[in-house]
Amino acid sequence: MIGELDSHVPGGPIEDRWTRHRFDMKLVAPNNRRKFEVIIVGTGLAGASAAATLGEQGYNVTVFTYHDSPRRAHSIAAQGGINAAKNYKSDGDSVFRLFYDTVKGGDFRSRESNVYRLAEESVNIIDQAVAQGVPFAREYGGLLDNRSFGGAQVSRTFYARGQTGQQLLLGAYQQMMRQVDLGTVTLHTRTEMLDLVVKDGVACGVVVRDMVTGQVTSHSAHAVLLCTGGYGNVFYLSTNAKYSNATAAWRAHRRGALFANPCYTQIHPTCIPASDEFQSKLTLMSESLRNDGRIWVPEDPDDDRPPDEIPESARDYFLERKYPSFGNLVPRDVASRNAKAMVDQGKGVGPLENGVYLDFAAAIGRVGEDTIRERYGNLFDMYERITDENPYRVPMRIYPAVHYTMGGLWVDYNLMSNVPGLFVLGEANFSDHGANRLGASALMQGLADGYFVISYTLANYLAGLLGTAPVPTDDPAFAQAERSVGDTVARLLSINGTRSVDHFHRELGKILWEHCGMARDEAGLEKALTEVPALREEFWKDVRVLGGPALNQSLEKATRVADFFELGELMVRDALHREESCGGHFREESQTEDGEALRDDERFAYVGAWEWTGKGSDPVLHREPLDFEYVKLTQRSYK
Amino acid sequence: MTTNGAGDGHATMDITLHIWRQAPGAEGMMVTYTEEARGISPDMSFLEMLDIVNERLIATGREPIAFEHDCREGICGSCGMMINGQAHGPERGTAACQLHMRKFRDGDEIYVEPWRARAFPVLRDLVVDRQAFDRIVEAGGYITAPTGTAPDANLIPVPKEAADAAMDAAACIGCGACVAACPNSAAQLFTAAKLQHLNLLPQGQAERYRRTQAMVDTMEQFFGSCTMHGECQEACPKDISIDFIAYMNRDYVKAQLRNRKLAGQRS
């Protein structure tokens, strides 16, 4: 039975909370740290930075990743940059302003105290990354360069060409590999977590599967950290990497961890439009492109002239027209919905009329092609490789795609879930972005959690366990979890149906995109609530997974898709219950006269955290009320 | 030439594939597929073409081809296969995941094999084990910077040229194409890129020679020797320059001298 959700947010003025809390928390002395076993699942920014930091401090850390190398985690694909309130440009930035922008950008559905801490730690991340040798862009004087990024009116984004995520991940990965060399971190690659083990309500380990041999084993620890990313691939087509999945988080949910705000999914405005049915994933281009690109469609839906023949007077720069002060830099959800509106009005461009133009002609005229190449060269190359069109000459075509998930496992201020001993970091938790994440904030959150938050809050938890041994892996709790994993694998291999895993995944994605995508309404969601379970039934009767347990990519996909079915259903339920629009969650029934998202703070200013109550039984909703003491609740306006 | 099933008249391609199939612990062999890669759209990526082939294999009860892939945006470094004898295929500076079928012609025969190198054993079909790269990084591919000890980021100015050159090296995605393309299966380009990313920066100076010696020595435990064929640079999907190998060799010679001197002082 889960009582009232306690976020454990410390009291006092917001700017003192984290400092005071760090002092109030218990410590683990250096000589005692080696007595603690810590399991980290996932090696993206959150996982690698946590492993490096905790290993350095002297804990015994065991790390699992399903990749062949930790460096492949999907953080690597982040392009645009990382925010930090350094105010190096003296353009009015501050910790408070970054905090304010993030709460407002999240459409008032995040926890103020967490966001403030994130803004505070942002400055330390940049120092840390530079010390590690992350080659951020520099000015000729040798100082760090900044740019402004979607939704911000200050230049606070640090970047390394269009490969910021890659460079930050390599920095964290290298720090972690140093600990591997020193023996404080034990690394297991090509190993996937398939269950969380909970004994007497406390997380005590994981069950994993060696993806090469198929062997299932148990590992115990004093604490388990999930750093396993988001669940965007529930839609099949997304900008996530193909292996990205929600299984670790979902397995933890089935063992008692609450899943918060699953309906908050972010649709990124600057992706390359899908070209056909065979499309395997969507490709994102950094929204930094919106700094210099101008977004437009032809005024006239029937205008099918090539873009260079359409005169200025016949173009609609719809974001600049509707939002004069932010223009093309409005937050992602606003940009995405407006693009959808244009396409829905028949003004879409391209062979399938499923995109809008992103035009660099004006910027090239202003600063020259060389400068544009320096800023976005790799993105332009990538676009050309995929579309066979040269964006220096022809406007890009873009369309929104699923990109990030703000929802995730519920955590308190200490990043601990409601299951003691289970911590959740980075995109896998729900805590900092509310209903919409601002650009260049995902890298910031993953690294803040991993480098600067968890080492304090984990010590506070572990201090109480000094002198206790981890639950041994021959405990019945481990045996039961291992059996359950073995049974699932065996069942999937024995169905021998007629349709592939990808077939089912694609069908699931279509239902969710149609009814629980960029815009949602009650009728569609009700429909999805019958279609998803029906398809899941078919999956368990008719999926075809050939081969055996050893290195079997269909089997890997099958376990993940099986969990996506359950998560997808919860997402729909959450979207249905939240009868308001906020950030990435847009309910058709709740909009202003101008078609903007209309919140209902009276009824929905809370975190919706769902409890798993067993197969075939409805999940139970728990609410964590949200208070806004420092950023006044207002209707967002980017006019 | 056929038209695709949608009947919209777009030209599609019929490809004959010869693909390396190998089960764990067994001998491998090339298998020819003539029916499975018909009706391919030129707008598909190479991996999407393999997806289609796999769907058709599954539909007819045959195990799909195992291949590594993840981001499909050319940045994670997971994918990698020899396509007609070229690492990542015919398009320069492009990973296999970003190669598109429009680079081939209707009726082409395409040979697809895994990376061939003793340090990269085949696990299944086109999937190889590249852990040797992680061992090289582990040996010294970092700047020691414990969390929380960093000074302000703007305290040490880094000349733009140095930052840019470090970034050129740091762009390496660790895919292994350089090793696969090398007749000696050498990993000089990978190791040099990892080294020079750090050795070119002011922050990387303290450990420069120790790092160089440790990483090069570890590299040589796994990989062949460089005889300057230059195939690595041609194959690199990120266009990493072979110049970095020269810098690495220079630093390695200096490291031999300097580290010996330090060792002498310590004893």
Task: Give the overall silhouette of chain B.
Answer: elongated
Tell me the count of domains of chain B.
2
User: Structural class of the helix and strand makeup of chain B?
Assistant: alpha+beta
Radius of gyration of chain B: 22 Å
CATH class of the largest domain in chain B: Mainly Alpha
Can you put this structure into words, describing what you see?
Chain A is an alpha+beta fold. Chain A contains 18 helices and 19 strands. In chain A, the strands form five sheets. Chain A has a five-stranded parallel sheet with strand order 5-2-1-9-17. Chain A has a five-stranded antiparallel sheet with strand order 11-15-14-12-13. In chain A, α3 packs parallel to α6. Chain A is globular. The two termini of chain A are 46 Å apart. The relative contact order of chain A is 0.16. Chain B is of the alpha+beta class and 267 residues long. Chain B folds into two domains: 2-124, Roll (Ubiquitin-like (UB roll)), CATH 3.10.20; 130-266, Fumarate Reductase Iron-sulfur Protein, Chain B, domain 2 (Orthogonal Bundle), CATH 1.10.1060. Chain B has a five-stranded mixed sheet with strand order 4-3-7-5-6. In chain B, a hairpin with a 7-residue loop joins β3 and β4 (29-33). In chain B, α5 (188-199) packs antiparallel against α6 (208-222), α5 packs across α8 and α6 packs across α8. Chain B is elongated and about 65 Å long. The chains are: A alpha+beta (639), B alpha+beta (267). At the A-B interface, α3, α5, α6, α12 and α13 of A face α1, α2 and α3 of B.
